Fold this sequence. Notes:
The protein is of the alpha/beta class. It has three helices and four strands. A four-stranded parallel sheet has the order 2-1-3-4. The longest helix has 9 residues, at 26-34.
Amino acid sequence: MAVLGERARVAGFALAGATVLVADDPDAVRRHWRELAGDVAVVVLTSAAAAAVAGLPPVRRDLLSVVMP
């Protein structure tokens, strides 16, 4: 599992063993999105991160993405 978004919203997920991908601007979000590791099955996005990747093609068909409330 990976968590992608702003540092303040994603940092705590590291304590649960998630891969934390800090991205404080849309370009960083899109870069991390394109470079997701092949062993990531689920990616949790902050709402800002989800907005940054909206409309981009999925990285893989088997990748589940969810947006934080």
